[in-house]
Write a structure and sequence with these properties.
Elements lengths: L10 E7 L2 E6 L4 E3 H4 L5 H20 L2 E2 L8 E4 L4 E3 L6 E3 L5 E3 L15 H4 L6 H17 L9 H10 L5 H4 L5 H10 L11 H15 L7 E2 L17 E2 L3 H26 L9 E7 L5 E2 L7 E3 L5 E7 L5 E7 L5 E3 L7 E5 L5 E6 L2 E6 L6 E5 L6 E3 L4 E4 L7 E6 L6 E5 L6 E8 L5 E8 L7 E7 L6 E4 L3 E6 L2 E6 L2 E8 L4 E10 L4 E2 L4 E2 L1 E3 L4 E4 L8 E7 L4 E7 L5 E3 L5 E8 L4 E8 L4 E4 L5 E7 L5 E7 L6 E6 L7 E5 L7 E7 L5 E8 L2 E8 L10 E6 L1 E5 L5 E6 L5 E7 L6 E8 L4 E3 L2 E6 L4 E8 L6 E2 L3 E2 L10 E6 L4 E7 L7 E6 L1 H5 L3
Parallel strand pairs: 9-11
Antiparallel strand pairs: 1-2, 3-5, 4-7, 5-6, 7-8, 10-16, 11-62, 12-14, 13-14, 14-15, 15-16, 17-18, 18-19, 19-20, 21-22, 22-23, 23-24, 25-26, 26-27, 27-28, 29-30, 30-31, 31-32, 33-34, 35-36, 36-62, 37-38, 37-61, 39-40, 40-41, 41-42, 43-44, 44-45, 45-46, 47-48, 48-49, 49-50, 51-52, 52-53, 53-54, ...
Helix pairs in contact: 2-4, 2-8, 4-7, 7-8
Length: 833
């Protein structure tokens, strides 16, 4: 009933009569697609496929998965309109992320011959299952026979899972290879390799229809580089100039667009009317010797006037800073004072840029002057610059607020208090033209949950309005909203005055460079019809290294993104989890620092966050078995013996269990029990008689908890955002507690005679000396952990030796994307007026 689309049969009412529930549906005057297939022409099949794709896209946008797409559930009306019917096996993903089914989880549902491989195997399904079924349907429409033809149901289901269908052109040679490619991509066995959205199928089919009738040849110019790569970057040169011919070509493009419109008006129409501009697709090359930093969703932005692109680049010396590409001249210029810059954003007048660097929100004016630090932002997640001179930003990973500061400098303040009861955090704001309202993404705080929605907010109050489900990184330009959905760049009409999204979305480009865990996408749009975006790309790895007290570094080896580490009690081994981006699962490994050998320890589908026992013989870690997150498992650290379940939550538990620390005497495990409302610390008795051991909650809300070296106390962080408190409490005496700091934002370690943590205000690791002799611990004044004066804001996981050395990790890779794509006159591309 949530659907209102011409290609979906409407549900008018749901009522009850004599105790029997019934559904009142729209009457469809026509016949099923099964009955219509024998007399359907090739053109009619194309038109029907486009309509089915549009209907599926509308359902998927509402979070509804049909799960039984087949000819019997498609109606062809007498007027040629095609409608999807019978959502009897559908499941609905609600706004909160929960899934409502009419069938039990894990059951096999659907119709044999049209089911996806994941349906056949009883796995969890999403909208991509419908795309596979739609591929089967289109294959049958265009060839007259199904792609899988087992002689009985078991053989048919085996083919769906294991056998690739022949190309349609092998069945009917007259079928165009381009159409063949569209259908076969829908039939990929792996959902990740399959076409990712029904709207993209619609775009592909419509494009094929236009090209096949030769109607599109004169509209879009073939892609070509906007300027070629410069041979090399001299170390002492900051302005990179392309060849003269390239400058002339770019100038000709801009001049040609203007002259084309003017000449057409004067010579042909003789009346004043807007020029009809051609669509130009081209590319902006990254100069040789310079690497574009495409990690974590990309670092590029086109200026509002459409004349410049700012991006983060890394030169041959390894220096990361901002660079400017001048589109009219082709010059590429480095910007001093912007070292370590990330996520740059232009000012409305295209004269300044805001960015994150060194744990700060900074701006730089290109008319002259150094970069200005405006506010603390240790792990910045988005900047927006309003026409009124206000900069809105999100300063850290778990901060549930947007902050604002005047662009000219001033006192930062919390601007919006957003509802985080569902565990969501705001990301990457963008102002609307009035300078008051802004767009932003609300996403799950858990980096492993990809749920994200687009909202509109206001500087004047805390009111927010939901605009789009399953979407992220929204940007507005000239009557349209641009956003990312399932890796596809979409555009949709939008009224900024009423905050209303209108009409159907248009898919512009698939495989946009993005980082799901941050809801960040690599695209931006100017005020005068230019759109840039990066294709593909993902962060490769993190780097593990030793860091001395004096700040010197010794590299160890590469890790995957989101890897966590643990140093063994004797300092000779490192346990870590390794994420496989293809399977989205992780395993525990151990690296022997003496033998320099890596060994895989775990075998379960997904395990993470390892911790050592006090004697270094066992590892304890979070495990996910049967979709449950309330499991902690253990195994000998040398990989021998069987994996054991140490503690498991009750059946159907919605909580997540994570190991925080093991006590020095080996008896107690410190845990974090998390749910939608927050996290609470708990312990279990590993030496007790009860098996499995009972979980005893401590009544302490917190995370990043550690035992004291004598095992009598715990240190932990409490709160959210960039100002979490560092506290110490007794395990047995509730009244014995201390608050030591109020500016924590990172891993907390209790090592021998000190506690250290990352300070969001000092932008460095701080240490708190402590003495444990006597009935109560005593603590000295906070002081810097490192003596070289640098921030060292990489994550630290352990310390060993004398003098001490610290186990740390940071982002290691730099992207190898060679160019950014550019569309001139994007309205012509998407059919805007």
């Amino acid at each position: 009933a949530a659907l209102n689309h011409p290609n979906v049969c409407s549900v008018i009412d749901i009522a009850e009569h004599d105790g029997q529930m019934f559904i009142v549906m729209e009457f469809v005057d026509g016949r099923t697609l099964r009955d219509a297939l024998p007399g359907m022409s090739y053109k009619q099949a194309i038109d029907a496929s486009i309509q089915i794709a549009d209907g599926l896209a509308a359902a998927h946008e509402k979070g509804i998965v049909h799960r039984d797409i087949k000819p019997e559930n498609i109606m062809v009306r007498k007027d040629g309109i095609v409608q999807i019917m019978d959502f009897g096996l559908a499941k609905l993903r609600t706004a909160g992320g929960a899934v409502t089914r009419l069938t039990k989880a894990g059951s096999t549902v659907g119709t044999a011959g049209y089911m996806s491989p994941e349906q056949v195997q009883g796995h969890e399904t999403d909208h991509r299952s419908d795309i596979f079924s739609f591929g089967v349907l289109m294959y049958e429409m265009f060839t007259g026979q199904p792609p899988f033809r087992g002689v009985h149901e078991t053989a048919l289901l085996y083919e769906i899972v294991n056998v690739d269908p022949p190309p349609m052109s092998a069945v009917r040679p007259e079928i165009d290879p381009h159409l063949d490619a569209v259908v076969l991509e829908c039939l990929e066995k792996d959902p990740k390799e399959r076409t990712q959205s029904a709207s993209q199928i619609s775009v592909d089919l419509k494009r094929y229809k236009r090209e096949s009738s030769r109607q599109r040849a004169s509209r879009i110019t073939a892609a070509r580089p906007a300027f070629p790569a410069t041979p090399q970057i001299p170390a002492d040169q900051v302005a990179l100039k392309p060849r003269v011919g390239v400058k002339t070509w770019i100038a000709a493009v801009f001049a040609g667009i203007i002259l084309l419109g003017a000449g057409y008006e004067i010579a042909v129409l003789r009346v004043p009317r807007p020029p009809v501009l051609p669509v130009l697709r081209t590319s902006v090359e990254v100069p040789a010797g310079l690497k574009y930093l495409y990690d974590f969703g990309g670092n590029s932005c086109i200026s509002p006037d459409g004349e410049k692109i700012v991006f983060t680049g890394v030169d041959s010396a390894g220096t990361q800073r901002l660079w400017i590409t001048h589109l009219k001249t082709g010059e590429v210029t480095s910007i001093s004072g912007t070292d370590k810059a990330q996520y740059p954003v232009w000012s409305p007048d295209s004269r300044s840029v805001a960015f994150f660097a060194d744990g700060k929100l900074k701006t730089i004016d290109f008319s002259g002057g150094p970069a200005l630090a405006l506010a603390d932002a240790p792990f910045g997640r988005g900047i927006a610059w309003s026409s009124a001179g206000t900069i809105l930003y999100q300063p850290s990973v778990s901060d549930s607020n947007f902050w604002s500061v005047p662009a000219a400098g001033g006192t930062p303040r919390i601007t919006t208090h957003l509802d985080t009861s569902r565990g969501q955090v705001p990301r990457f704001p963008s102002f609307l033209p009035d300078g008051i309202h802004f767009l932003f993404t609300s996403m799950m705080a858990d980096a492993n949950n990809a749920s994200a929605d687009v909202y509109a907010g206001s500087l004047n109050n805390n009111d927010v309005k939901l605009l789009l489900h399953d979407a992220s990184y929204a940007r507005y330009s000239d009557g349209f909203l641009f956003y990312l959905r399932q890796g596809i760049l979409m555009a949709q009409r939008f009224d900024p005055g009423t905050l209303t999204v209108n009409d159907k979305p248009t898919a512009i480009q698939a495989n946009i460079n993005n980082w799901v865990a941050r809801a960040k996408a690599d695209f931006s749009v100017s005020d005068n019809g230019l759109l840039i975006f990066g294709i593909g790309g993902e962060t490769r790895a993190n780097e593990l290294f030793w860091l001395s007290s004096a700040g010197t570094e010794t590299p160890l080896f590469a890790l995957s993104i989101y890897s966590t580490c643990a140093l063994s009690p004797d300092g000779t081994r490192i346990a870590y989890d390794l994420l496989d981006l293809q399977s989205n699962s992780s395993q525990i490994w151990v690296y022997d620092l003496v033998k320099k050998v890596k060994s895989r320890i775990s075998v379960a589908p997904t395990v993470m966050r390892p911790h050592w026992s006090a004697d270094g013989t066992r590892l304890y870690y979070h495990s996910e078995i049967g979709m449950s997150k309330a499991i902690i498992a253990t195994r000998p650290a040398d990989g021998s013996g069987e994996e054991e379940i140490c503690v498991r939550g009750p059946e159907g538990a919605k909580e997540e269990y994570n190991v925080e620390d093991l006590s020095p005497d080996g008896r107690w495990m410190l845990m974090r029990v998390s749910n939608e409302s927050g996290s609470e610390l708990a312990v279990i008795d590993l030496a007790g008689q009860q098996r499995p051991p009972a979980v005893r909650k401590l009544g302490i809300s917190g995370a990043a908890a550690r035992f004291s070296p004598d095992g009598n106390w715990i240190a932990y962080e409490v709160g959210t955002g960039v100002a979490r408190k560092v506290c110490v409490a007794s395990l047995t005496e509730k009244s014995a507690s201390w608050e030591l700091a109020t500016d924590a934002s990172g891993e907390l370690i209790w090592a021998k005679d000190m506690i250290f943590y990352y300070s969001s205000t000092a932008n460095r690791y701080q240490s708190i000396p402590c003495v444990l002799t006597g009935a109560r611990p005593s603590f000295a004044e906070v002081r810097p952990l490192f003596t070289d004066g640098k921030s060292h804001n990489d994550l630290i996981y352990g310390v060993t030796g004398n003098p001490p050395k610290y186990l740390a990790q940071r982002l290691a890779s730099v992207g190898d994307v060679k160019s950014l794509s550019l569309i001139v006159n994007w309205k012509g591309f998407i059919g805007g007026e």
